[in-house]
């Protein structure tokens, strides 16, 4: 069968239906005895952790009156303790450099233990008011647990949970609904907090790089910092002091542009351009509004299609050049 396939491929090459390079690639592909399922298995493990923790939450919600609060808390605590026991047992210990488990399954066990810990602490506060009126502690304590899991076990998923918890602690929600629901407009202090937190994340990244402390976490910190600073700045571009936030957005764009090139990170590069494009358009609209009495409307309507089509083509070209340079 192998000889038949090789002859068929060679026939296609001789008849110039495929190039010699393509024929070589096809033969090399067919000569492989096996292929890796590593990524597929990791996705399945991640989904299993999410489904398990979700199932625990549903179980608690549906049977809260029949099982009892104490039984639920004890069950959660036992599962958490067992999970952390196997994690500590099979991990080498904290190191400043990147460290991995001998078996990647334990990375997902850390994630499960972390999520269940957050559920446990939240349930304590909800049912027994453990932290009293200090509701922020109910968010801060799981955040600290997540940071511990992230840095001790070198777990990036836990780090994302920790940073999300930190933003929740200061009252932020990093998602598009935060803009659509006018949360930043109703409470401008949130935008200041978002920019401040974004700057702190950048400073922590700089410190981590200099001290060699989990340098590979830098991309996650920078991703959160980019969204925090950019969304908060854009939300304030319609205030009286918009030029200050336009300046912040401009400096942010320059910084993250070079960082995306340094890390060869397409996501950073993509969103940096998107946020910069939004900020630029806001300034252009302000200029158009200022000059509206001096220039006729038809002139804007004539230039608009050229501008938008040209910007789309330029953006597409930039993305292609970025991929070409890094691949």
From TrEMBL:
It holds the Pfam family DUF2157. Keywords: Membrane, Transmembrane, Transmembrane helix. InterPro entries: DUF2157 (IPR018677). The chain crosses the membrane at residues 43-61, 67-88, 108-126, 132-152, 159-178, 190-207, 216-235, 241-258, 265-287, 299-316. Residues 11-157 form the DUF2157 domain. This is DUF2157 domain-containing protein.
């Amino acid at each position: 069968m192998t000889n038949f396939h090789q002859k068929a491929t060679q026939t296609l090459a001789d008849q110039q239906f495929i190039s010699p390079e393509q024929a070589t690639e096809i033969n090399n592909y067919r000569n492989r005895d096996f292929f890796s399922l590593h990524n597929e298995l990791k996705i399945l493990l991640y989904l299993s952790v999410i489904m398990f923790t979700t199932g625990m939450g549903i179980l608690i919600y549906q049977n809260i009156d029949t099982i009892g609060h104490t039984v639920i808390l004890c069950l959660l605590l036992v599962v958490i303790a067992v999970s952390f026991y196997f994690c500590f047992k099979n991990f080498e210990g904290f190191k400043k450099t990147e460290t991995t488990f001998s078996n990647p399954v334990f990375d997902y066990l850390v994630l499960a233990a972390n999520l269940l810990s957050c559920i446990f602490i939240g349930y304590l506060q909800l049912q027994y008011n453990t932290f009293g009126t200090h509701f922020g502690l109910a968010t801060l304590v799981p955040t600290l647990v997540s940071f511990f899991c992230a840095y001790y076990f070198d777990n990036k998923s836990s780090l994302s949970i920790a940073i999300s918890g930190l933003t929740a602690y200061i009252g932020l929600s990093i998602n598009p609904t935060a803009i659509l629901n006018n949360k930043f407009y109703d409470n401008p202090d949130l935008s200041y907090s978002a920019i401040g937190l974004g700057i702190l994340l950048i400073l922590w990244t700089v410190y981590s790089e200099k001290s060699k402390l989990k340098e590979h976490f830098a991309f996650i910190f920078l991703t959160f910092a980019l969204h925090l600073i950019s969304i908060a700045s854009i939300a304030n571009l319609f205030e009286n002091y918009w030029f200050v936030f336009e300046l912040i957005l401009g400096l942010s764009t320059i910084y993250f542009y070079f960082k995306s090139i340094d890390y060869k990170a397409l996501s950073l590069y993509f969103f940096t351009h998107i946020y910069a494009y939004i900020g630029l358009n806001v300034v252009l609209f302000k200029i158009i509004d200022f000059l509206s009495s001096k220039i006729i409307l038809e002139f804007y309507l004539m230039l608009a299609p050229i501008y938008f089509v040209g910007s789309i083509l330029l953006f597409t070209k930039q993305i292609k050049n970025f991929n070409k340079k890094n691949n």
